[in-house]
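Our preliminary data section would be incomplete without showing what the modeling component actually yields. Below, a chain of 496 amino acids is followed by its predicted structure, encoded as tokens that our downstream tools consume directly.
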Amino acid sequence: MIIAHDLGTTGNKASLHATDGTLVAAVTTRYGTDFRAGGIAEQDPHAWWRAVCEATAALLSRTGTRPAEVRAVGFSGQMMGAVLLDAQHRPIRPALIWADHRSGEQADQLNAKLGPHEAYRLLGHRAHPTYSLSKVMWVRDHEPENFARVAHVCLAKDYVVHRLTGVLRTDPSDASSTNAYDQHAGDWSETVLDAAQLDRSLFPPIVASATCVGEARAAIAEEIGLPAGTPVVLGGGDGPLAALGAGIIDPEDGAYTYLGSSSWVSMSAARPLHDPQLRTMTFDHVVPGRYVPTATMQAGGASLEWITGVLRPDPGEEDRFARLLAEAADADTSGLFFLPHLLGERSPHWNSAARGAFVGLSRHHGQAHLARAVLEGVAFNLATCIQAFREAGHPVTRVDAIGGGAASDLWLQVLADVWGATVRRRSIVEEANSLGAAVTAAVGSGLLDDFRAARDLSTVEVEFAPDPGRHDDYTRRHADFRAAYASLEPWFERQR
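Predicted structure:
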């Protein structure tokens, strides 16, 4: 068996796989996030480790798998965060996760020194507070006593892999999410680190995603519930591993959308894709020689989770999410828009000051209208991103959907109608990231010969074709959605 862990925003989605990658069982162990005013979004790295231990025990118990049957462990992890460790590799403070956007001033400093277009050319990304580098700079500037103890900076999956093996490494996919990685050289960028005034020694060596970096240590064998010596494969960032889990390996595999806390549209490419308007970004794939051009918004599924909590606040209400969406199915939202920028925004606006807003509210609007407007707002925002890909010569006519939001027929139909593209739900949606991690672990441990085995492990279950009439209407409304943001952008800036 193979165990894969996906350290996401709300919890660890762990899965057990046969050695050919076939999914056998999955569990989710939750942990909390400290969201506070001022752009704070932090998590306790110890909670990630506890979630990995609990999920491992649950998978083995639920399936009757003996620990000795586990041939490899692999990892997927949330990207763009900053885990700050001391010389003994102990966390100095809570991790600043991707959603933390306190470091706008530091990102502005990078842009001023490098120039936004040069930064984008080097990194495949804008310099932005979403990324790890400006977060580390923020700690240096605002918490000097903590920063004086920092000896290592890493990402979520790297911390857990070190806890398991005693080896600290990162891979190109996660490195490409830090704003410190020269995508052309495939290494940490001396130019960018000099601009940030940070020492290269803070950042771990970069090795291939499918590297078997070590084995489970005897000292933690009882805690993790696996035998000492179990091989551990490093894995990668959740975005590129989601692509692998969706079977997106080569350019001809098309595009996919991930509908999780953050949401994105992405594809595979043979080289980085640079948008003249800097709307999109490019990560390294976990597959060597491949890249994943991506347009990511901060609060996709998180917007739906938020509105559900606001309108249906009782967590004990059975199927509250499904009930709310059922009400939204027939709601007429003409003239009503939701700007889904609850956590600032990455693609397409790259504005950490952006905020969520309902625009066009009338007295007759109720729960159903608000819920449907949220679905449509996420679809409209991602449509602007898809437009950037199309303008760059990458036609997007078919999009495979994964992530928790892909379970909603209504949302997938809305996406198809807004985008004018066929949207297909795959058979593995919630566990797509951990499926990618399992395939990477199988390749790294010699159980599989090629990443392309992933294509056969998840199949298309249902297709949602765009309705021409609704697409025409949504195309007109998309222009109004964009105009609403443009009108509010000066107000957002004044609220910084």
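The chain has a mean pLDDT of 96. The chain is about 35% helix and 20% strand. Preliminary results of this kind motivate Aim 1 of the renewal.
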